[in-house]
Amino acid sequence: MEKFLYGSGHLTCSIALAIAKGDIKGEISAQVKADINRSAAYVRQIVERGQVVYGINTGFGPLCTTLIDADQTQLLQENILKSHAVGMGEPIANDLAKVMLILKVHALAKGFSGVQYSTIERIIWHIEQNVVPVVPKQGSVGASGDLAPLSHLFLPLIGLGKVSVNGEIYATDTILAKHGLKPVHLGAKEGLALINGTQFMAAHGVKAVSEFNRVLQNADIIAALMIEGLNGSIKPFFSELHELRPHAGNRYVASNIHSLLYGSAILESHKDCSRVQDPDSLRCIPQVHGASRNAWLHLKETIELEINSVTDNPVIINDELTISGGSFHGQSIALPLDYATLAVSEIGNISDRRVYLSLEGQTNGVPKLLMKSTGLNSGFMILQYSTAAIASENKGLCFPASADSIPTSLGQEDHVSMGSISGRKLLQVIDNVDKILSIELLCAAQAKDYHHPLQSTPALEAVHERVRQFIPHIESDQPMETLLSNALELVKSGELISLRRRSNPQKAITMELIERFDTF
User: Fold this and answer.
1) Which of 6, 54, 117, 252 is catalytic?
2) Exposure string for 214-227, b = 16+ CB within 10 A, e = fewer
3) Secondary structure letter of residue 408 according to DSSP
4) Phi, psi angle pair for 277, to nearest 5°
5) Is the dihedral of CA 358, 364, 370, 375 positive or negative?
6) Which of 74, 188, 383, 453 would you label with 292, given CA atoms 20 to 30 Å apart?
7) Domains annotated on the chain, with CATH
8) 252 catalytic, yes or no?
9) How is residue 279 annotated by DSSP?
């Protein structure tokens, strides 16, 4: 099995997700273990000589001037987990909670947090045994770190809280007893190091980088299928045009769509038609999808910088220097998370416009409402109502959470990022856009049928054939629920992307663009 070295390796979003799935094993090298032990020794030395350091021998937040006796430091660290575990709402998905554990191990293993090696070992045990802490989704303001969710995440270390095992929820002490384990005894600063950080926000960002990428790949494929169905032109995707306005995302999308369409008999059949230009939802795909790709790239780069950083407070540089700063503050990722929410919503907006366009039945070679016999039949009319409703819902979710800040901790933490809300909203909008794209897929496949027996390219024919294995061509009204579910499953599975890559390996796209937009 492939291995990743916590604390010294470069963690990417894909590696974090692979560790969570069990496809990669995370380990700690001898050198990193030595760094962890040295940092923990610094903390012990600080306690022994009575040096006043925030969170080691003081209270927290507005209690930062309250000194704590040396013999009470362990109780102080356990109390912070208990008092701060005040999250509300439904639990986050297990995969997100597991990614949080992975991100925290990597950050602590950098050797600047003063935690014991044995504590990190226990967290790794939770990861490898799939004993996943139950973490409520609400309660973090994104500074001073994701305090509430991280407290829930690490209550199991001291034998408290709940864990999920094989989909069932148990009290932590029950599971520890089953495995013959006892709660961890936290040392000075450890409780604070565990809950100070951006791992809740960042875990949402890690998952969003993967899911958003899938949305973008699907959007290009489905849009190309719709271009074929509506007799659209290939010219807006010529490289000569995009070299004159060379935004990287635009160039990638133009090349991607061009490679999907080039050589199509359907395109060849109407190359001399009288249409001067296509509506914007077809010819501006590189500009709209491309802008969203640029936003994805910014999110990926920012999240991957964050998950390879030390984000707790205070930071232990050595036994003489500790710094109480603001590395826990989530603003750095809250803004890109909000930007990405807007960017993915726009993919849904333009997809809805293409669905609407497919129903017009004017000069695009398909019947009105995508059925030959309408009147008695309503055809695909109401599908666009659904895309419109979901697209409108997304617009409400696009208000940036990071534009707000409510003072907390009696004013000690008087500016917060609200990045946890940004991350949650982003995943919600991604889920909504999947639904819009699944409806466009259904409409595009129906439109393409009307050009039979003309063939498209191998990639689009493979996609169309796969759709037809689950969703038949329709010429009379019928319940759509199962068909929509099947389309959504195809979109979420990533299968269309795999089909496209096997049938057409993106030869027209430069390696530079592939490396930027196809890897994470």
Assistant:
1) 54
2) bbbbbbbbbbbbbb
3) B
4) -155, 155
5) positive
6) 383
7) 2-197 (1.10.275.10), 204-404+416-517 (1.20.200.10)
8) no
9) -
Question: What distances in angstroms separate CA 185 from CA 118, 123, 134, 136, one per listed residue?
Answer: 9, 13, 21, 24
Dump the DSSP string for 91-104. Answer: EPPHHHHHHHHHHH
Dihedral sign computed on CA atoms, order 194, 195, 199, 204: positive
Q: Which two tokens stand for residue 515?
A: 């490396």
Q: Give every CB contact of residue 286 below 8 A, 6+ residues apart in sequence.
A: 236, 237, 242, 250, 251, 253, 254, 257
Residue 115 DSSP class? -
Radius of gyration (C-alpha) of the chain in whole angstroms = 26
Cis peptide before 62 (omega within 30 of 0): no
Residue whose structure tokens are 């609407």: 356
Q: Which amino acid is at 364?
A: N
Listing DSSP states for 118-174 in one string gives HHHHHHHHHHHHT-EEP-EEE---SSSSSHHHHHHHHGGGGT-SEEEETTEEEEHHH
d(CA 386, CA 477): 16
Distance CA 42, CA 443 (A): 64
Question: What angle separates helix 199-229 from helix 458-470, to the nearest 10 degrees?
Answer: 100
The one-digit pLDDT tens for each residue of the chain (520 residues) are 899 999 999 999 999 999 999 999 999 999 999 999 999 999 888 887 777 776 676 655 665 566 667 667 778 889 999 999 999 999 999 999 999 999 999 999 999 999 999 999 999 999 999 999 999 999 999 988 899 999 999 999 999 999 999 999 999 999 999 999 999 999 888 999 999 999 999 999 999 999 999 999 999 999 999 999 999 999 999 999 999 999 999 999 999 999 999 999 999 888 777 677 899 999 999 999 999 999 999 999 999 999 999 999 899 999 889 898 999 999 999 999 999 999 999 999 999 999 999 999 866 779 999 999 999 999 999 999 999 999 999 999 999 999 998 888 766 777 889 999 999 999 999 999 999 999 999 999 999 999 999 999 999 999 999 999 999 999 999 999 999 999 999 999 999 999 998 886 666 677 788 878 887 7
C-alpha 254: how far from chain center: 24
CB-CB contact of 97 with 162 (8 Å)? no
Are 172 and 161 spatial neighbours (Cβ–Cβ below 8 Å)? yes
